[in-house]
Write a structure and sequence with these properties.
The protein is of the alpha+beta class. Helices cover 25% and strands 43% of the residues. The radius of gyration is 15 Å and the shape is elongated. It comes from Spirosoma endbachense.
Length: 132
């Protein structure tokens, strides 16, 4: 059986949290979210994952996890953002052979996209991931 990748473990985390799933109804994608999709939804992307020298050579990496939120209106966007922060800030758990730890880092302003006819926001978390 092939080992899971870090992105697959993050997908598992984001798609299976009950409080989040009720809001995004399974609409979780890596990197971007396409036009014509249903809302509310979220996408995720990692940035700057680097090995920690003080740990086993390939075992632990740190970087940023960007979570993009897309919603039909500002109220849905605020609800989704608050729930993501509540669920993921301080999160620690195991997913597909990885231990994942998250701490809130920063967020962007709420914005609108006329092409999508939607509201969106990006949240950033400090990510530590260890291959088990």
């Amino acid at each position: 059986m092939e080992e899971a990748k870090i992105g697959e473990a993050l997908y598992d985390l984001l798609s299976k949290q009950i409080d989040l799933e009720t809001l995004h109804e399974g609409r979780v994608t890596p990197v971007t979210f396409g036009q014509g999709e249903n809302f509310s939804a979220l996408y995720y992307n990692t940035k700057g994952l680097k090995r920690l020298a003080c740990r086993t050579p390939d075992g632990t990496k740190q970087g940023l996890l960007e979570i993009g939120l897309v919603a039909k209106n500002s109220i849905e966007l605020e609800t989704l953002a608050d729930t993501v922060n509540d669920v993921l800030d301080g999160y620690e758990g195991n997913h597909l052979g990885y231990q994942i730890s998250l701490e809130i880092n920063d967020d962007d302003f709420d914005e609108t996209d006329p092409d999508l006819e939607a509201f969106y926001k990006r949240l950033f978390f400090d990510l530590t991931v260890t291959k088990l």
